[in-house]
Amino acid sequence: MTEDWTNQLPLPATAYLEGRRLDEVECVIADLPGIARGKAVPASKFARQDYFHLPESIFYQTITGDWGEAADETVGFIERDMILRPDMTTATAAPWTADWTLQVIHDAFDRKGKPIPNAPRNVLKRVVKLYEEQGWDPIVAPEMEFFLVARNVDPAKEIEPMMGRSGRPAAARQAYSMTAVDEFGPVIDDIYDFAEAQGFEIDGITQEGGAGQLEINLQHGDPVKLADEIFYFKRLIREAALRHNCFATFMAKPIADEPGSAMHIHHSVMDRETGRNIFSGPAGGETDAFFHFIGGLQTYLPAAIAVLAPYVNSYRRYVRDSAAPINLEWGRDNRTTGIRIPISGPEARRVENRLAGMDCNPYLGIAASLACGYLGLMEERRPSKQFRGDAYEGEGDIPRVLGQALDLFDEATKLHEVLGPEFARVYSIVKRTEYEEFLAVISPWEREHLLLNV
């Protein structure tokens, strides 16, 4: 890094530091769950380093901090180091800190300069490159749903809605209510302020159907850039909530009787040469590519759900009549189907995947969804007939538990080739380890109903 490295900073980061002395740089990378791992270093040290090291084993840890067998098979706990190089286009403020701090996302390489296949950002870049090799630019627009809940430091205690500024708990069944949004006004103000300091454009914030459930929409754009923003957004939303004595949670189903939280992903694909949406023809009609993309989602999403719904809790969201899909039907402007075609003009024609949970790693969730569409385009998959009516009246055709989803994922060799075979191997091992950890826990339901009755 050169002494004048701050000249490489994006405009929002430059504006944030204007007239101020930078104290610290947080060098971060997302692990499999999407947790920020890395090091905080003085700004003067960051200026002197071109890279830093972290052990590759961070990609073999479960959400509980234990290790999957993949660590033994791959690195053998030798703690082999990766080389992490900064992507300065991702430099952004950490406006909740006490001093003047920047965050910079890093990319992971081995000693020969090859991308580490298990790094989630590298997985997404791999998929995007496959599109680019076909002369396409994939475009995504993610929606983020989350809950603001009362502080909860006891895992045995049920999660409760946060207390609004009126002094009453957040109410459910208030979708799109501006009064409900006002209840969280101070938290939302900080979310806006943090996002502005970081240079992120929020397309809108709305109240969702759950008690204390909000949705943030982001502008459409490059998949890697949008995944970076979601990675950053999760942290800034948590920090904003903590300032107001509540928690922000991205669990797929944090409260039993409330809807779950999704990360709906809108997709379109642009022709790199003409800049036109390949889902729309010259006269504005739907193209074969449009239908092939839908066909790919229908064919490969059952196997990809292990990535879009990565935890045992994720599958509690797929419940009939609870604002989450139970099948892979597709329909126009139909929110009961797993695949929805929103109302739009030809230039903005897009396909919405409603299966991804907000608990998924944004890099991996977007990569898996794009991978399914890519396979459909390459194999010219045809979708089923458009569904009309209430898809909840039909049969469910997606996995209902993590173990079943992982079985389908392990069999999906074509999907592995797109995401990366080594990543697919390690991901499956880590997730099966988590599943076994969960099965070893005896739940309150079992103690209540089985202890004295069976």
UniProtKB/TrEMBL annotation:
Instruction: Enumerate the UniProt keywords alphabetically.
Output: Ligase, Magnesium
UniProt cross-references to PROSITE patterns, sorted A to Z: GLNA_ATP (PS00181), GS_CATALYTIC (PS51987)
- All copies of the GS catalytic domain together span 120-454
Q: Please give the coiled-coil regions recorded for this protein.
A: none
Q: Which InterPro entries match?
A: Gln_synt_N_sf, Gln_synth/guanido_kin_cat_dom, Gln_synth_cat_dom, Gln_synth_gly_rich_site
Is Ligase set as a keyword in this record? yes
* Cofactor(s) in the UniProt record: Mg(2+)
Tell me, what's a Pfam family for it? Answer: Gln-synt_C
Family note? Belongs to the glutamine synthetase family.
The name on file for this protein is Glutamine synthetase
The lineage, from the top, is: Bacteria, Pseudomonadati, Pseudomonadota, Alphaproteobacteria, Rhodobacterales
